[in-house]
Structures are given as C-alpha cells and as structure tokens.
Amino acid sequence: MTGKRSSYHHGELRDALIDAATGIIREQGIEGFSLREAARRAGVSPGAPAHHFKTAKGLLTEVALLGYRQLGEYLARVEQTGDAAGDIAGISLAYVRFALDHPGVFRLMFRNDLVDRGDPRYEGTSMSTFQPFAQAANAYRRTEGMDRIEERAALFAVWSAIHGMAHLVLEEKVNGLFGVASSKEWVESHLPTVLKAIWHTHARGGVQSSS
C-alpha cells in the first residue's frame, strides 16, 4: 500500500488508515503496529494518523471495533437447531475459528491498555456482537435475560470456557495433547467433536439443556 496515493477524498483517509492498521496487526501482530507504519502503508505523511485519531490507541480502538463486528458475523452465521448443547458447540466453534483466522485482532480486542473502552460505541458494539452467544448460552442453561447475577454467572462460565479454548488454540497448547501438527488442523479435525462431547456431557451431568 506504500505510496498508493497521497491525497484522499473526505472520509477515505480514515478508512485507509484503519485498513492499514488492520493489515499490520494481521501480518505482524500488535507488536508490529505503529502510527508511522500505518501512515507508510496508507501512503500519507507520518502525522496523518494523529490528525484523525489523536493517538495510537484511537486508531487501535477502530481496529478492535471492526474486530467485534467481524466476530459478530461469525457468530450470527451459526444456525440455531433447537438442540441447546449442539448450538452452544456451534457458537464455540465459530468463536475459536474467528480467533484462529484473526489472531492479532482477537488479542487486541481484549487489551484494556490498547483499546479505549470509554468510546461511546464500544459497549453497544460489543454487546451486539455477543447477542447470538448470549442467546445460545441462555438456551443451554434454560435462563432468560441477564438481569439476575445467576444468569450473568452462567453466561460468564460459558464464555470463560470458550475464550480459554480460543487462547489455548492460538498458543498451540492443544497440539501435543491431541497429537496434531498445527492448531488449524486440530480445529478442523478435532474441535467439533471435542465441543459436542464437552457440552453434551455437561448437559447429561446436571447442566440443564433443552434437548
């Protein structure tokens, strides 16, 4: 993208810088990101990102918000079948696949030091992203809403399990345990079976299921 062009129509430069930052994080991880590199990729002056986003955190917040929307698309594509344990397994698989497909962005999304969670869009975007996730968890636990602490605790337990799986996959901690060469291979060949075994076993062991 370097030198692609030095002038943009109104609004285009902002999007170009977000695309550049996302590309850097996708290829090099958070460690490779800098405002200067984002500007270089977008083909603009080093001061351009600061003009539009003020700080690196401002630009990284835009990348994280985009990541939440993309994760929401992954989760929304999971077909709800009415089998509560099967549905939560499907949501879990989509969550882990997103993390594996977008590892840098996934890690960024949960970095308090790099993302401005006070941004007025953050709460709405993240809550909307996890709506399919919350619905599947509620069906699995036979609860409704998130008003009572018991309902939030149930969702927290499910999310913790799935989020932990995603990080273990990214750090390739499952390879030796299951005898596979790569996390990608494990996700495609083993994870669907593992998830179904986990959630159906929990349901039979006393966790309520609608199936």
TrEMBL record:
Pfam families, sorted: TetR_C_33, TetR_N
Alphabetical UniProt keywords: DNA-binding, Transcription, Transcription regulation
Phylogenetic lineage: Bacteria, Pseudomonadati, Pseudomonadota, Alphaproteobacteria, Hyphomicrobiales
Organism: Methylobacterium brachiatum
DNA-binding feature ranges: 34-53
Domain HTH tetR-type positions: 11-71
Record InterPro entries: Homeodomain-like_sf, HTH-type_TetR-like_transc_reg, HTH_TetR, MT1864/Rv1816-like_C, Tet_transcr_reg_TetR-rel_C_sf
Protein name: TetR/AcrR family transcriptional regulator
Key word Signal present: no
